[in-house]
Amino acid sequence: MTASRRLIRFLLPSIAALCAMFALTAVIFILGVLLVRGLGSIDWAFLTSDTRSAGAEGGILYQILGTLILIATALAVAAPPALAIGLTRVVFLRSRPRAARVVDALLHALNGIPSIVFGILGLLIFLKFFDWGKSWLAGGILLGVMILPTLTVSLVERLAAVPRKYIEAAVGLGLTREQIITAVWLPQSWSGLLTGSLLGLARAAGETAPILFVTAVFSGATLPTGIRDNPVLALPYHVFVLAQDSFNDDARANLWGAALVLVLLVACFNLAALPLRLNLHEESRHV
Amino acid sequence: MAPCAKLYRPQWILWSCAFGVAVTLATLLAALLMLVWQSLPVFAHSGVGLLTGTDWYYPEQIFGALAMIYGTAVVSLVALVLAVPLALGAAVLSAEYLPPGPRLAVKSGIEMLAGVPSVVYGLIGVLFLREWVYKGLEPFDPISGDSLLTAGLLLAVMILPTITTLCDDALRSVPAAQRAAARGLGLTRAEAVLHIALPQAAPGILAAALLGLGRALGETVAVFLVVGRQDGQLPGNPFSLTAWISPGQTLTSKLGGPETHIAFGDPLHWSAMIGLALLLLLFVGVCLAAAWGLERMMRRSTDPVAEATP
Amino acid sequence: MSEKNTIAHRATEGTEICGSGCGSSSATSVSPCEKNSPLLRVRNLSVSIGKAAILDNISLEVPHRTVFGLVGPSGAGKSTLLRCLNRMIEMTPGARVTGSIHFHGQDIFAPTFDSDVLRTRIGMIFQQPVVFPTSIERNVLFGIRRLRRLSRSEGTDLVEKSLHEAALWDEVKDRLHASAQVLSIGQQQRLCLARTLATDPEIILMDEPTSALDARSTEAIESLILRLKTERTIVLVTHNLGQARRVTDWVGCLCPSVSTGAGEMLESACCDAFFGSETCRRVFRTLADDETLS
Fold first, then answer.
1. Best of C113, C115, C116, C119 to disrupt the A interface by mutation (most A CBs within 10 Å)?
2. Which of C76, C81, C42 is CA-nearest to residue C59?
3. How far is it, in rounded angstroms, from Cα B12 to Cα C84?
4. Is the pLDDT at A77 greater than 60, yes or no?
5. What is the layout of strands, in order, in the sheet containing C40-49?
């Protein structure tokens, strides 16, 4: 074998390994920095008390609550259409591949829309047209539309993996399409919606741009009491504002703490979705 | 009644699904139309000048986005040039060389990068990357660590996991029989990767790069924090790189900034901002459409073994 | 044909001696040194994949320029054995190999033995033909291009020679630049053969090369094998006993053992001897569902 072939045989995996190591180093660095600088600030008081002195003292209670309110709203907004689109895509459009492709393309497109465009749209609709002032509901709705593709794709994947033999058996028993949906499709695939929901929640929790204009304030809000002029605090926005004014050293420690809490929150949802995602791969191997 | 006559059953599931889909579609369409409608004034005012004008100065109603388009392009280019080779390398390792256990570990590790919210990336950019770039560029006497380059570097890490996962999928979709045939001829593993797997996975890899590009184009928060947000930084000479190491502005950093609030009062200013948002949508849309087309092409040419007529 | 008997006798190990004069014509002249040392010698080969035992203590010898057939019921491990001969077993995760295989007297599993080089000298044809998504010409030259630089004229000559040897030249000589994927499956298999022949291997391993093909292509490949064995050695896995009878000089029969389920070598004998034996009749009965003895 020529020397050059031997050289390439050695170089390719080596270079590939270096690339992978770079990526993994980045992961370790980011997580490491967060833990090292943020862990110290987190204690029970931090998580349950109000912010004081523009972030230099106190905790992030209302930021956490605000984020939770926003993502819960987002889920409530996204789940029904996701179910509708998912069922339509798999069950009703089974015999119309062209329409199915259109639906896929639309979901793909929706998923790729930059988050700032959602923010601008929110400004346009909720502030200009509806004149809501800053509102938690506006943010929730925007986030909901943003995570709609995440939920739908996950549901569609799971629906598509339902073995044909169950459907055929149900048809053979004389069930109507609607009955088959409630008796076979949904029971077999609800885990897809669950997975999608968890992933969607993770995504919504970390987003800043959609809530930048229409929902979040840095201080002054606790829990909303109505819809109009009822902003909330949010973890990503909190970090965003503090990151722009990072010269106050006291705030810096809390800033890392808030960032770490945000990352952990997102990670919790992502990890919770993991077992279900691995399960899907298992089952599709048997089918 | 005849035994098999059709009973009328209310198909409420069908109707609610149709309703859900219709509402979603209508909302999206309405949103798009609203954007277009709201941006009309600025196109009436500046026409194509919105895209080709080099200055942006709203107090005098000068709306030229070319510098921002340039900034967006540079930032995305830097991100792609760094991320695609790294992602491809990591994907080659995980798809071609690693056994299932370590492969899952490496893939999961890299996917964790995707789970970090963009604002946290921005934070790390502000507190670390900015300093590193500033120190690294000292021979060039930079103004600060905020620059198009910094934003590009940060974006590269952000889009790395997406491109890696998609490249890995593309490589894995090349049938194992092809590699086995190559190895059976005496080709080394590296040669099988270079001459069989990579060429056949090329459309998928290209699609991955395009999707990464789409993501890079649309990223706001992280770019906002480290790009410097300086308007009008279009270099006179297209080949000069000084603009790369100076603060700049991208479409997203402008949109995410204070001007959006300021524009609220002035209809023309407001429509200019909407115009920027539409431009952004257009660029991202082209990337996604191209990626979509490539993915369909890849899916169509999956199994090359012909069941052709004898 | 007493010369053949002597070889047969020395080549077998503890198995049935070929008593009757072997009528099978192996019209090759065997050189003195080749007479004494088989090209491939497998000793006590056992293979397991994960927890499952696939092969148990296989020993056989493949003489020069013969066609060695491996027959037996499905699941006996014939393909696995074949994959050991060119070390492609190493690409199966979890595979463990014990025992030795000697090629020209050298242990192929030795750490200093380059497996990539081995595969240029021991080629392989798979059950499903795998053509690369490129032109016919490029397919043929795919392997040999790595081994040495070929000038343009050398390349075209080699393409013609290999395609002739694989009996495909007349059908494709006018469309060498066309995509290989439009060929029929029988033609694709011959193209794979041409591609392997271009690297000039001493041994060609064939894993059920005709089971995906129609009768006409099968016939073509079988006559090809008979022609090839004048120059090269072939190890052929087949579950078609008729094919084995038509084409092979030597037959090794693998059957899964009742105790472990791993394949073991029941018998290794020269062709005619095997087909008269009791073992053959037993195996024939188990294979009767899938194949006919034609």
1. C116
2. C42
3. 62
4. yes
5. C106-107, C95-103, C40-49, C52-62, C263-270, C250-256, C67-71, C233-237, C203-207, C122-125
The structural architecture, per CATH, of the domain C2-128+202-287 is: 3-Layer(aba) Sandwich (3.40)
Tokens of B87: 């992602």
Segment of A182-186, B17-21, B34-38, B296-300 carrying the highest mean pLDDT: B34-38
Region class of C269: left (phi > 0), else alpha (psi between -120 and 50), else beta = beta
Alpha-carbon distance of C98 to C94, in angstroms, equals 13
Residues A30, A87 share a domain: no
Find the CATH number of the domain harbouring A251: 1.10.3720.10
Q: Do B185 and C199 touch (CB under 8 A)?
A: yes
Whether B221 contacts chain A with CB within 8 A: yes
**Dihedral, CA atoms, B166, B167, B170, B171, nearest 10 degrees?**
-150
Chains that touch C (3 or more CB pairs under 8 A): A, B
* Domain, as residue range, for B200: 55-300
Q: Are A12 and B194 in contact (CB under 8 A)?
A: yes
Residues B54, B67 contacting (CB under 8 angstroms): yes
Query: Which subunits have 3 or more CB–CB pairs within 8 Å of chain A?
Result: B, C
Record the tokens describing residue B303, joined without a space: 């199994």
Tokens of A187: 């029971």
> Could you tell me the residue range of the domain that residue A131 belongs to?
44-286
Residue showing tokens 């988050």? A115
Q: How many domains does chain A have?
A: 2
> What residues in C contact A9, CB-CB < 8 Å?
116
The ipTM (two decimal places) reads 0.90
Among B89, B113, B189, the residue with its CB nearest the CB of A27 is B113
> How close A66 gets to chain B, by Cα (Å)?
17
Q: What is the model's pTM?
A: 0.85
pLDDT digits (tens, 9 = 90+) for C204-254: 999 999 988 888 889 889 999 999 988 999 999 998 888 988 999 888 888
